[in-house]
Amino acid sequence: FCFPTTMSGFPVEKLDFGYLAKCEDEKELAQMLRALQTQSYGSYPQLEEAVERKLAKINPQHRALRRSEKALRPAGLDSEARKKYEEEMEDFERSMAEYDSELKHTAKRGAVQPDPWVVPPPRNKDQPFQQEPDQHGDSAAARTKISTHASQVAQDAGSRRIPGHDFRAWDQFDADAAAAEVDQASTAERTVINAAAPHKSVRSLPHSVDGPLPTAQARTDLALQEKIKGNESFRAGDYEEAAVFYTRSLSLNRSAAVYNNRALAYLKTKEFKKAELDCSKVLETEPDNVKALLRRATARQELNNLRGAQADLEHALRQEEHNSEAQRRLDAIHQLLVPPPAAAATAAAAAAAAVVSGEG
Q1: Neighbouring C-beta atoms of residue 261, cutoff 10 Å
Q2: How far apart are alpha carbons 167 and 153 in whole angstroms?
Q3: Buried-most residue among 1, 32, 132, 240 (CB within 10 A)?
Q4: Cα atoms in the Cβ-side hemisphere of radius 13 Å centred on 310
């Protein structure tokens, strides 16, 4: 009988203290720990503990060291914790009852929405439909071609649309990827997308959301809705509208992620000073946020603050030393800061002449 050497994907001959003493690769240590935890070759608690200690020494935050714990039930809490839990549940039920009562009272008064700006007005509701001839004449064939193209683009955009209720998907929304996707769109596609953009009344929305919001949870929920609207506008390439909705979200709940998204929208609209301020807001609470550092570096470079951009890029590289984008941009800034060879030689000659004249 031959015992398999890779029952769990890790060679059994490497499961010993001698190999562990020589191993410095955290990926291999994680595989060794996984093989020991699953007990594919048996139970070796002392070796498993030694592998955990070494992996924790190399990378204390490694995911292989995470422990899953079962959720506590109220019956498993001590008397003080259970009392606090029951009080919090009673407060929650009381606040929900008050909120429900307020909604019912509002509905009886006939005001379905207490704040007319909570939901934006329908797009182009005050303008009758007008069909204008194209630049080359009112050609039926041309209109048919444009209509078919618009339908195809709208269908493609709809297939990528994230449902508004899918909060987990929106948490994973990458504004940078969405921006790149919009930038790669052809001129014709962008024209069709912008044709479905909101009426200018959306941009005239107040930059803060007013109205009775009885609970902190209600403010958080509404802030999330405004953020989702901003993300949808960003995906459509309407960065001005996205900035409006992000601003409304921030009026309810100041979030570093929303400040970061609004900064990118401001970069797209070339409002570099506003972008720099938003990135600074993010870095006040998250000083090592790489996205905010890269975006502030972009804004500062456009504002001709090359030293500030250099500092941000160097900070980003300290967090992610293999970030190729940060390194490429830092090299470009170094070329802007270092004088050309001819100018440097002239300056050196002038300095030498000044020294000689001083000695004479």
Answers
A1: 27
A2: 25
A3: 32
A4: 12
Q: If we measure between CA atoms, which residue out of 166, 278, 289, 293 comes closest to residue 232? A: 166
Cα–Cα distances in angstroms (integers) from residue 15 to residues 45, 140, 143, 229, in the given order: 12, 76, 72, 53
165 alpha carbon, distance to own chain's centre: 18
Contact predicate 10/35, CB 8 Å: yes
Lowest mean pLDDT among 18-22, 210-214, 311-315: 210-214
- Residue in the structure block whose two tokens are 């870095």: 283
Please give the Cα distance from 70 to 77 (Å, whole number): 13
- Mean pLDDT (the chain) is 75
Residue type, 81: A
Long-range residue pairs from 165-170, CB within 8 A, at least 24 positions apart, any chain: 167/224, 170/227, 170/228, 170/231
CA distance 157 to 159: 5
C-alpha to C-alpha distance for 8 and 16, rounded to whole angstroms: 16
Tens of pLDDT, residues 278-318: 999 999 999 999 999 999 999 999 999 999 999 999 999 99
Residues 109 and 305: their CA atoms lie apart, in Å, by: 56
